[in-house]
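re: ur question from earlier - yeah i can do the single chain one, its not a big deal. heres the input i used so u can compare w yours
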Amino acid sequence: MYSTGLLFGESIMEVLRPQLIRIGGRVYRKNPIQEQTYQHEDEDDDCYQGLVECAEESCEGYEVVQTPQGFRCTLKAPSLLYKHIVGKRGDTRKKLEVETKTSISIPKPGQEGEIVITGQHRSGVISARTRIDVLLLTFRRKQPFTHFLAFFLNEAEVQERFLKFQEEVLEKCSMNEDGYRHTLEILRIWFQTTAIKLRTCRLSGHDSRAQPLCGMWDLPGPGLEPASPASAGGLSTTAPPGKPGIHIFIFNSFIEDHGVDSTIFQNPKKLHLTIGMLVLLSEQEIQQTCEMLQQCKEEFIDDISGGKPLEVEMAGIEYMNDDPGMVDVLYAKVHMKDGSNRLQELVDRVLERFQASGLIVKEWNSVKLHATVMNTLFRKDPNAEGRYNLYTTDGKYAFKERESFDGRNILKLFENFCFGTLKLNSIHISQRFTVDSFGNYASCGQIDFS
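and the output i got, formated as tokens:
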């Protein structure tokens, strides 16, 4: 029914560096496989088959109790994930029970409780528990993020400065569609009055997303070549081969502000600095997060902060990707006003603690101190939240199409823009897609430094 092997075209690096899954202090390798399934089989069955190999090595760290009937192990999981252990028509649970020679009891959908594993052999119970943990972790990773740890950066002064930044950017760096059309119409009329024939063609450039913004005008005289395409931002129009023509260039001021409009700016009431993203699927997990945050406060946050707010400055802008001409996220930099590294140390240690607990999936070793001020996802959805819209509620990958903007002028003019100073006194557990009475994200819990 299934055939396994290296994925066709799999790069050698993907084979040498497979995905790692951490469970109970152990690290399991998830090998790349190729699966051929029948049409009636669903995603859960496919996933189980692919994960069995990486869960073969059992973890001895589980608490297994000996009973008169054999051995017993329990674990808690959000009811939202039960269906992935049961599988379609119960097939996943049946496979688990048959292959590990155990019996697995799962609460009914919508009911919170314990998953109970029983069996005659301790090794079988541990094997079943390990495989269930792998299943839970895999499908948890496919859930959309529900909460995030963050500092709020929406003090009145910062909001005022942000609105000033937005106003000046739109005034100095925004070329809207009407402006483009007006400029091109002036050029068209001018060339027509000089008896030059207008013929349309598509712009060519360094990126396939270059837009057809200009025409090409053939001249009756000898062809004239430009000194360098760079003088027009890398975009030009060209005459057909063998025909006399002239390259007409669009000045940098016409193209460097493409895509900049009011829709891509952050809501100033929601300015924040994210420490880490969370998937919290039950009230119990929210409470667990609150307790973990309190432990961080007692163990190291108080020492780093000195029991006082951290005074920081939000100043300077930077972009996420490597091309200032095709920007999706522009952010403000955040740093300690006294020049120390205390804020970075604090957030990195919080991140490390939550990663070790499994509440945050390990992606980075350090937090990037930033506050998003412009994001192209806002263009179509004002409630979008950056790169964190990877999965839908049913666990399917969601591709978010974006229209990038040219940020070169913004970076030149506002490189050192100061949004103000703040006193960071609280870390919040914020819930995505919610709004409190102040227009900020609703907070499910917090710790205060003073």
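The longest strand covers residues 310-319. not sure if urs matches, ping me
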